[in-house]
Amino acid sequence: DSHIQYERVGADVTMKCGSMDWDAAVTWTANGTDIDESHLNGSYLILKNVDLSQSGQYSCYEGSSWHLKYQTTLRVGTPPKEPVLMCRSNNYPKGFYCSWHLPTPTYIPNSFNISVIHGTKDMVCEKDAVPKNRCHIRYIQLFSTVKYKVTLTVTNALGKNFTTLTFDEFAIVKPDPPESVVAKPVPNNPRRLEVSWQNPSSWPDPESFPLKFFLRYRPLILDQWQHV
Fold first, then answer.
1. What distance in Å separates the CA atoms of residue 6 and residue 29, rounded to the nearest whole number?
2. Of residues 71, 86, 68, 56, the one with CA closest to residue 26
3. Which H or E run includes 86?
4. Of 50, 86, 172, 187, which residue is the least packed, with the fewest Cβ within 10 Å?
């Protein structure tokens, strides 16, 4: 009999030696190392105030015969805190993507479920292979005044949590940075630089949706920026 047992950091954990009687003579090991009898209550193993270091494989053997009677993997962790969710359109008007992460690790496996609603319509958020914590939504109607509602739920063996974003289509449009930025000296003019750049390659239609560029610069010896 082998399975996984999930417990919260700081919990008191009791492990039963399979179907063995409470007063049976048993020996417990953790990751192959004998556990002191002071942690036993009859044949039960009692772990007080567990921490992350106590995760591992626990085995129970019958008496002096060392016949394996029970085995479990203890995974110590925490319930998930409210996830951090961000949605952004960097390729308008094609669609937008949402990405997420947890503010603190849980040390055990987590599963994420995301739902996207546009008005009353459920939309598909297609998961990206890389990065794995991102999915994208294709716009079905441009210049829509109906808000999007995105809800992300995270679940693990010790609990669940969620967060929700509600936004207008235009509020999340944010192009990627310009590409191929080059600064060159201007011949015979030591106080001038020529700066050139290209549209971000992710921006699909710069003619219909032109981008404005904002440039700032300063000599390294000064703290104040100049703006163009």
1. 18
2. 68
3. strand 84-88
4. 187
- Distance separating alpha carbons of residues 147 and 166, to the nearest angstrom: 7
| 3-class SS shares of the chain: helix, strand, coil, % to 5 | 5, 50, 45
Q: What is the largest CA-CA distance in the chain?
A: 95
Domains of the chain: 3-77 (2.60.40.10), 84-172 (2.60.40.10), 177-227 (no CATH)
pLDDT tens digits, one per residue of 197-215: 999 999 999 999 999 999 9
Q: Which of 119, 187, 112 is nearest to 151 (CA)?
A: 112
Calpha distance 105→153 (Å, rounded): 15
Distance CA 22, CA 178 (A): 70
Q: What is the mean pLDDT of the chain?
A: 93
| 169, 177 Cβ separation under 8 angstroms | no
Q: How far apart are CA 189 and CA 182, in angstroms?
A: 17
> Does residue 93 have a cis peptide bond before it, meaning omega lies within 30 degrees of 0?
yes
pLDDT digit string, tens, across residues 28-68: 999 999 999 999 999 999 999 999 999 999 999 998 788 99
Give the gyration radius of the chain's Cα atoms: 29
**pLDDT of amino acid 1:** 46
Chain position carrying tokens 């772990």: 47
**Tokens linked to 112:** 């994420």
> What's the average model confidence in pLDDT over 10-30?
94
Q: Other C-beta atoms within 10 Å of 139: how many?
A: 17
